[in-house]
Amino acid sequence: MVAFRSGRLDARAIWDEAVRAALPVPLISRATALATYADAIRSAPRLIVVGAGKAGAGMAAALELVLADHLDRVQGLVNVPAGLHPSLQRIRLHTARPPGVNEPTPEGVVGADEMLSRLAGAGPSDVAFCLLSGGASALLPAPSAGLTLADKLAATRLLHRSGATINEMNRVRKHLSRAKGGGFATAFRGRLLISLIISDVVGDPLDVIGSGPTAPDPTTFADALAVIRRFGLESQLPPPALDHLARGAAGEFPDTPKHLPPHVINHIIGNNRSSLTAAATKATELGYRLLDLGSFVEGETRAVATAVAGVVRSIRDDRQPVAPPACVLIGGETTVTLGPDAGRGGRNQEFVLALLAKLASVPRGLDGVTLLSGGTDGEDGPTDAAGAIADSQTVIRAADLGLSLDDHLHRHDAYPFFDRTGDLLRIGLTGTNVMDVRVILIS
What we know:
Blueprint: H1 7-20, H2 24-29, H3 32-36, H4 38-43, E1 47-52, H5 56-66, E2 74-81, E3 91-97, H6 106-120, E4 127-132, H7 136-139, H8 149-161, H9 166-174, H10 183-187, E5 192-198, H11 221-230, H12 239-249, E6 264-270, H13 272-285, E7 289-292, H14 301-318, E8 326-330, H15 347-360, E9 369-375, E10 387-390, H16 392-400, H17 405-410, H18 414-421, E11 424-425, E12 436-442
Parallel strand pairs: 1-2, 1-4, 2-3, 4-5, 5-6, 7-8
Antiparallel strand pairs: 8-12, 9-10, 9-12, 10-11
Helix pairs in contact: 1-13, 8-9, 9-11, 11-12, 14-15
């Protein structure tokens, strides 16, 4: 029975199933696009592979398995972070950034330039594959002509500090890049470009995942310039970047493509929803009643945790909307607004800490409750943990250690708290990324 098993073990088993469902090998082996275009693949003189992302190494390895009968014609490279480099036969894995550095690097530019050159040099019968996954945007830096990587980095950092949304940042980044905003699709000169995508964005918008190198871009130079003006950054933006946006808005060079030719095909092969579905199946097998809150959860982490605390209390005390033993699944990706004196942690660690603090403040709030939140890529903020797992014993250990939940929460300092209580979720890089999965058990 559920009541006699460890909530921690069950929560971890459910979460692990969510990650397993997002691993590249099964996703690519089931990709219908490969079978649909078998004739074009079979007859192509060259099979060109490009791409980037945290799942890039696994996706490249899986693609080589699927193309085993055609490996002599496969060539290309994929930009990946350091740390996950399986042995491949034909696709080169290019280390584009060191571990824990989620910003573009000169090494990333070298890789992106080679990819653009390979796509532009494709023959009329060549087929190309683009492998995209979470983290691709930072791993595919290709500054527009006349710009440096430093110019682009300065623009991105200014927007981030100003509180720009990811969509606003993307409007600017796409218009300072030769790869983003349909740049790969524009460069390609062959017969067929198949983009296989593991989504790390709420709602799976093609133009946002990896900043859309193979997708049409609905935004314009004028939109990008409007973002800069909205935040009053004209005087702070590097002059070459501001000049580039202004000249583009004046029509001095072509905008990003608004429509793609029919030979460019985009396929979402994995996302947060599919991982939640796998987690739900596992939870049901373990005997839990299910409440799946979906993959569209966004907003400030603490606010989401407060709302979820109310759901947990309703399940336990009122047996609504489901009765215990229950499993609450939550996907999506929240945000944390940091102050100047912020401590160390990530959104998943902060979610568990905020939910723990809220439930610990009410009578019996944590009775029979297990909380787990983790990034499916194995990373959570600038730390070595994917997230955290906690229950009533966490509060007891914290009290024994003299740790204050509210103090650490106030300082956005979840990592040291869970490091000392022994509740960090340390699993290493998973080789995929479909945002976050949270598992809450009420037994």
